[in-house]
Request: fold
Amino acid sequence: MPQPFRSSDRLRAYLAHPLVFYGSGATFVLFQVHFFTDAIPALNTRLSAGGTILDMRMPFVSGAGLPGWDGTLAHQLLSELGSAGRADYHRFLTTTDMAFAAFVSPIFFISVLARAWSGRVFVMGASVGVFDVLENLTVAEILKSYPARSVLAETWGPWFSFGKFLALALVITAIVSAAFWNRRPCPKRT
Reply:
């Protein structure tokens, strides 16, 4: 007797479809190229040597010996940006980066995981986007309230950054492990 076709199977098959997979992958790459060749370097040029925006830092320690971010560091970076830089950063966060966090990143990671794993593992791909959206909202609140302090955003923002990087590490681990250990072919879309 055939098994009933569950809606999660249908969703998984849709998300694993080549058009979704390749379309979201191409969009993901285009956003990354824009971020790392234009948007982020333009913001970083306003910061002191070696400085980078809050989105690229973790709460404890960041790469290249950069300190992790907290409310004090956030205020220091925002003062270095100046009013025009803060306006540019806010615009970047609430438009381009928010679109990436809310749509492009989760759809791409969900699509990759849907192709790589059976079951509902693909839902884990959305966690990267959820934490990134929350991080963007807290940083936007810090920007909006500057020079006043936003204690709630300054407290939770670094943890949302940590959640984003942790979720990204877990998703990449799942993708790499599927490449080595999961030889199950992707189901056909019906």
